[in-house]
Q: What sequence folds into this?
């Protein structure tokens, strides 16, 4: 990543994006990111089966702060244990850095909630960018009202300790079959959630934005009746056309 402003770090991992990179990623989609990463040889970076909690929620962008669950065990997990101040689930809510995304490895479990509305409200107050789980959340309508961008498989209304035990914070995890390392950057939209390896974030953001801007030109041409052949994906010839269009001030863009 490039230089950070007001960077927060834990265990040597930075959890802040510089403003320019964040703005670029907010202008692109998860599919654009996936295409760019495919060019780098990454094929398993989209989290299959995860859906936005709310269709109108804003774009999700932020570095990953991770929480991992394992199956609950009756002699350890109870509501009494859950209420303790050293419970890692609750600690994650208080430690996830501002601007970061809480990424929950729930081992695909829908028998207990990865988060409820009180936790979501606390994340919003602390400036967290969003939450992602390969399980599910509870209090769906109330979470949506907080405005926190969230992604899940489907709702999981049961109490967390019925099925899940929090075991680790800020370590590499698997979420929906995708490896997520602390500080990797997530981009989520209506298509799903993509994970960008943290070392490639600046490069991917630039390339994805360039692709989006070329698509604006291609969409203009298609709307005028042009074939996609020789236009999309871009060819050396269409790139020359695009560069000329940009140099002319992007006429008839709207």
A:
């Amino acid at each position: 990543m490039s230089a950070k402003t007001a960077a927060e770090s834990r265990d040597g991992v930075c959890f802040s994006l510089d403003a320019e990179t964040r703005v670029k990623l907010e202008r692109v989609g998860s599919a654009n990111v996936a295409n760019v990463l495919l060019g780098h040889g990454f094929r398993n970076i989209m989290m299959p089966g995860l859906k936005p909690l709310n269709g109108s929620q804003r774009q999700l962008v932020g570095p990953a702060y991770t929480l991992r669950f394992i199956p609950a065990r009756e002699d350890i997990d109870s509501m009494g244990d859950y209420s303790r101040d050293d419970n890692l689930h609750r600690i994650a809510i208080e430690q996830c850095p501002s601007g970061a995304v809480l990424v929950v490895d729930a081992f695909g479990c829908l028998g207990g909630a990865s988060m409820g509305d009180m936790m979501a409200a606390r994340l919003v107050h602390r400036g967290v960018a969003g939450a992602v789980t390969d399980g599910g959340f509870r209090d769906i309508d109330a979470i949506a009202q907080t405005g926190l961008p969230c992604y899940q498989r489907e709702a999981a209304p049961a109490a967390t300790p019925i099925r899940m035990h929090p075991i680790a914070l800020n370590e590499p995890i698997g979420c929906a079959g995708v490896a997520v390392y602390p500080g990797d950057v997530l981009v989520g939209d209506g298509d799903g959630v993509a994970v960008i390896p943290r070392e490639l974030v600046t490069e991917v953001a630039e390339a994805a934005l360039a692709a989006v801007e070329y698509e604006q030109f291609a969409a203009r041409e298609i709307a005028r009746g042009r074939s996609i052949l020789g236009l999309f994906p871009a060819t050396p010839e269409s790139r020359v056309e695009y560069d000329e269009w940009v140099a002319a001030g992007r006429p008839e863009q709207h």
In short: The chain has eight helices and twelve strands. Confidence is low (pLDDT under 50) at residues 1-7.
